[in-house]
Design brief:
This protein is mainly alpha-helical. The protein has three helices and two strands; from the N terminus they run E-E-H-H-H. Bound molecules: FE2/S2 (inorganic) cluster.
Length: 64
């Protein structure tokens, strides 16, 4: 599924980049070589990035 139509960013690619880079949607888009265009996807992208960041933090806490 595409999260960002303007940049053809798929959810799985966004999740992978979020785990590697984290930060704001704009930062993760930049890591993928894109910049937001219409910005209608940013709320959903932020939610997905937050999910991945929390998942990574929870995994690190469990491993400690
Ligand atoms: S849908 Fe992502 S910038 Fe337009």
């Amino acid at each position: 599924m595409y999260v960002c139509i303007c940049n053809a960013i798929r959810e799985k690619d966004l999740r992978t980049a979020a785990r590697c880079c984290g930060g704001s949607a704009e930062a993760v888009y930049a890591a993928l070589g894109h910049t937001p265009q219409c910005c209608q996807c940013l709320d959903e992208a932020e939610d997905i990035i937050a999910e991945e960041t929390m998942t990574g933090s929870a995994a690190l806490s469990a491993a400690a």
